[in-house]
């Protein structure tokens, strides 16, 4: 279906077949991101990987990100760092459990994801006190909220995406609602990994049920909703 939002021509993709045409068959034709005000200010005039126009610059950015951030070798190089952050979270949860204190799991997952991302990209993690009186996370949340507010000048609202922390939270929530599945997953982890160490990236290939749980959780709660 074709619409015109102000001066912006807009195509509504309303079926899996149409989505395949736009996102796979004719992907290069529709690869450009629409310009909008918020992206100009939060991504250096739309020059980051998420908002840049398709072309040589974007391809070089993607290549650089793939080699320096997302390659198998690079991901493995951050293994110790990820383990350190996970150990800190586990220690905090154990202390809270010993004291009988309530823990905001959503906030802790959000902090974990932010700390790992900052250490990977910026080389260090930031505490709330490091960024004026608001705090680091508050400033980041404010930027995301401002980007998500529809701007009449753009004629189309920004499509917001859930974070990795929310994806983890929803997966755990689904397991808590399905004790039988949680028990099956725990048994797989106990057999494949054991009780004396934590799950490592090298274990993932043999954890078939865990992979199915992750995929089903993402199916039920996709990070980016293309079709409903």
TrEMBL record:
<dbReference type="GO" id="GO:0004497">
    <property type="term" value="F:monooxygenase activity"/>
</dbReference>
<comment type="similarity">
    <text>Belongs to the cytochrome P450 family.</text>
</comment>
<dbReference type="InterPro" id="IPR036396">
    <property type="entry name" value="Cyt_P450_sf"/>
</dbReference>
<keyword id="KW-0479">Metal-binding</keyword>
<dbReference type="GO" id="GO:0005506">
    <property type="term" value="F:iron ion binding"/>
</dbReference>
<dbReference type="GO" id="GO:0016020">
    <property type="term" value="C:membrane"/>
</dbReference>
<keyword id="KW-0472">Membrane</keyword>
<dbReference type="GO" id="GO:0020037">
    <property type="term" value="F:heme binding"/>
</dbReference>
<keyword id="KW-0349">Heme</keyword>
<keyword id="KW-0408">Iron</keyword>
<dbReference type="Pfam" id="PF00067">
    <property type="entry name" value="p450"/>
</dbReference>
<keyword id="KW-0560">Oxidoreductase</keyword>
<protein>
    <recommendedName>
        <fullName>Cytochrome P450</fullName>
    </recommendedName>
</protein>
<dbReference type="GO" id="GO:0016705">
    <property type="term" value="F:oxidoreductase activity, acting on paired donors, with incorporation or reduction of molecular oxygen"/>
</dbReference>
<keyword id="KW-0503">Monooxygenase</keyword>
<dbReference type="InterPro" id="IPR001128">
    <property type="entry name" value="Cyt_P450"/>
</dbReference>
């Amino acid at each position: 279906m074709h619409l015109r939002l102000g001066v912006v021509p807009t195509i509504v993709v309303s079926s899996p077949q149409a989505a395949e045409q736009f996102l796979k068959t004719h992907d290069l034709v529709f690869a450009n991101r629409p310009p909008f005000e918020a992206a100009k200010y939060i991504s250096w005039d739309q020059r980051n990987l998420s908002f840049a126009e398709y072309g040589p610059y974007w391809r070089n950015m993607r290549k650089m990100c793939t080699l320096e951030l997302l390659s198998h070798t690079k991901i493995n190089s951050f293994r110790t760092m990820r383990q350190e952050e996970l150990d800190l979270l586990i220690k905090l949860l154990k202390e809270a459990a010993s004291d009988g204190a309530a823990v905001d799991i959503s906030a802790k997952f959000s902090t974990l994801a932010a700390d790992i991302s900052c250490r990977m990209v910026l080389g260090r993690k930031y505490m709330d006190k490091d960024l004026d009186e608001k705090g680091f996370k508050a400033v980041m949340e404010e930027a995301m909220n401002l980007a998500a507010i529809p701007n009449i000048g753009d004629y189309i609202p920004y499509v917001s995406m859930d974070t990795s922390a929310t994806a983890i939270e929803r997966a755990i929530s689904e397991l808590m609602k399905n004790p039988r599945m949680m028990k099956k997953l725990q048994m797989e982890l106990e057999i494949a990994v054991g009780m004396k160490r934590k799950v490592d990236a090298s274990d993932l290939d043999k954890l078939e049920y865990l992979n199915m749980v992750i995929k089903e959780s993402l199916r039920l709660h996709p990070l980016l909703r293309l079709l409903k």
